[in-house]
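FORM 7B: Structural annotation worksheet

SECTION A. Query
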Amino acid sequence: MEDTVKVVMVKHVIICNPDVTLQDAVKIMKKKNVTCLVVVKGKVPVGIITERDIMFKAVANNLDSSKVLVKQIMTSPVRTIKPEDKIYYANSILLKEGIKRMPVVKNNRLVGILTQKDLLKYFTKLRKTLALDKFGESIKSA
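SECTION B. Predicted structure
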């Protein structure tokens, strides 16, 4: 049976409101040591703001981070995935759409986040397991 996104996703997601300043959002990112924030209204994701958004949309344009609101530079609408979706499907979306993170949503509510790093860990573990299984088979047949 193929694993689902729920197995790999991180359940504790760092969030912010679309009406906070960019400066406050960056402070949250620094304090929580994360590279993105999922932007929510209530529990519904309405966007995502990443280090790349901050660099290319704000810093490169000399915007004042104490005056610019997150909703002005966030990526929206945000691509989401469901916890019951298959991991290989999620990986294909990240690759095809050139994104690194996807909020995980159930019944239109944020329940987690899936990142390239999470998938890399999963596939590395899977590869090691397969290699060990193959090694075990070769020992038994010897």
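SECTION C. Observations
The helical segments are 5-8, 22-32, 51-58, 70-73, 87-97, 116-141. The chain has a mean pLDDT of 91.

SECTION D. Sign-off
Analyst initials: ____
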